[in-house]
Amino acid sequence: MKVDFFRHNITASERKALDKTLRGLFISTGDEVSQFEERFARYLGSPYVVGLTSATAGLHLAVESLGIGRGDEVITSPMSFIATANAIIHAGATPMFVDIEPNTGNIDARLIEDAITEKTRAIMPVHVYGQLCDMRAIHRIAKKHRLKIIEDAAHSVEARRDGVSVGQLSDATAFSFYATKNLTSGEGGAVSVHSKKLRDRLRQARLHGMTKDAASRYQKRFQHYDMNFCGWKYNMSNIQAALLLPQIARIEKNLKIRKRVYEIYMNELDGVKNLGFPVILPGSRSALHLFTVWVPPRKRDKILWRLEEKRIGVAVNFRPIHLMSYYRKTFGLKKGMFPEAEKLGEKVITLPFYPTLKPEQIKYVANTLKNIMKTL
Ligand SMILES: Cc1ncc(COP(=O)(O)O)c(C=O)c1O
Fold first, then answer.
1. Does 173 share its domain with 91?
2. Are residues 180 and 41 in the same domain?
3. Per-residue pLDDT of the chain (376 residues; tens, 9 = 90+)
4. CA dihedral over 61, 66, 72, 75, signed as positive or negative
5. Ligand 1 pocket by Cβ (under 6 Å)
């Protein structure tokens, strides 16, 4: 049996929507993007969404549009994809890492206040694997120290915790529609915000700072555009939006299927010696984006390779950002600084996890892992 690490779930509905878009006049940013922004905002319960080319673009524009840049610090987690901290650097600011909770992998809100300096301007929590960070605690800290909050919600479209939904307590929240995400357009992203002013700034920033995009320039009569600040080229296309629109209607159904896959894995792997899992806390509805397990660190890579030999796709989410060569060199970061993130980074393995996985495939992955663990 072969179990790919990920298989997308693009169906006939997406193909039909894409076909319609491709037969239309505008394949770059236009009506489909506006529709996506409106429907995704409705799903999130957020007033505004801006469609972009990636979550990285979203995090970058959010930091920049909130007026954070050179000389400023943004607190974030080392247990994330490098995109999170890179986006802070793209905006000219400095990422300041805070260690994680060992049981969830999320930033430890109890350690945030100690990392605040007079240069701190924002907190960028990352909701790893689909579970929200302690947003109530982070919000309290941000309020007390007058800091902005920018959520990295690349893993967590569907997440809620303690009565708080993703994006509810922050200034801006970035989502990813990268190939392996719960919603996907191959590449793509979005930011949700509560302020109309910030939405307008993001809309302009995603397209060079232009005052009118192509679709609005060619309505009725030709209209000239102006440019009043230097923006980027991060606008979502109608092709991406066409692929995403039908998926919004399936989010809840797919989450139920993800939950079933999660439960089968947990049943199959129950009681396996030396195997651990991140905890989903009471009161937390995880988006169940990734299924990760913890194995003995010294055996981790061997287990990864043995799984691959058995034709099972694997990944590591994540090796901590502060240990990447660039971060060590540029910011003088080293091993020992964020011990919980380091421990997690050495023991974690991500297994295949998506709605189209069949029970026999899940059982094959679980049994293969169990057998490998027995022979170590
Ligand atoms: C936690 C996290 N943040 C940010 C990103 C970046 O997303 P994108 O590829 O859409 O820029 C990813 C992508 O994998 C991610 O996992």
1. yes
2. yes
3. 999 999 999 999 999 999 999 999 999 999 999 999 999 999 999 999 999 999 999 999 999 999 999 999 999 999 999 999 999 999 999 999 999 999 999 999 999 999 999 999 999 999 999 999 999 999 999 999 999 999 999 999 999 999 999 999 999 999 999 999 999 999 999 999 999 999 999 999 999 999 987 777 777 788 899 999 999 999 999 999 999 999 999 999 999 999 999 999 999 999 999 999 999 999 999 999 999 999 999 999 999 999 999 999 999 999 999 999 999 999 999 999 999 999 999 999 999 999 999 999 999 999 999 999 999 8
4. negative
5. 54-56, 80-81, 83-84, 126, 152, 154-155, 176, 178, 189
**Which residue puts its alpha carbon closest to atom 7 of ligand 1?**
55
Q: Is residue 7 part of a domain?
A: no
**Domain CATH number, residue 143:** 3.40.640.10
Task: Identify whether residues 87 and 135 lie together within a single domain.
Answer: yes
Domain carrying residue 299: 251-374
Residues 6+ apart with CB under 8 A from 180: 5, 6, 8
Indicate the SS3 state at residue 235: strand
149 forms beta bridges with: 123
Both 152 and 282 in one domain: the answer is: no
From ligand 1's centre to the CA of 90, what distance in Å?
A: 15
Residue 207 Cα, ligand 1 centroid: separation in angstroms? 21
Cα-to-centroid distance, 67 and ligand 1 (Å)? 22
Residue 113: other Cβ atoms inside 10 A: 13
